[in-house]
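pinging the channel bc i need a second pair of eyes. not urgent but kinda urgent?? the chain im working w is below, pasted from the shared doc
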Amino acid sequence: MIDWLWGSLLTPRHEKSRFKNVLAFGSLRFSRVSRKGLRPTRSFLRCTLRAMIYVYVLQSDFDTGLYIGMSGDLRRRFGEHQRGESRSTKDRRPWTLIYYEAYLEKADAEGRERFLKSGGGRRFLDSQLKNHFRRFPRREVK
């Protein structure tokens, strides 16, 4: 379940805690289990296994325009855009994912998506991705 974490773990240190047998690897905390090895603590699971909401920016290879969207499963949604399953993007395929942000709260992601679609958000993207847009200029909206 947590195999992806093992590459980034440091050497364990025992922590004085109100809980018995808690090991800490950096900011990650694990409780010992006799036969099963290490098991993450419940508070760690509660914080890390929540679904992330992604706000993403795609650039069309067809007309160099941008598409800004939001999804709980970025890989699946990007595949839908590439296969033409989304009505708003099927005529401008293929797409390149050029930027994304991850949020824990859906309301935060919705606000960020709304901002990126505004004039100030477009200016933010221009400054944030200036090197990308220098190599791959985007279509100017009139």
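so Residues 106-116 form the longest helix (11 residues). and The radius of gyration is 21 Å. — does that match what u expected or am i reading it wrong
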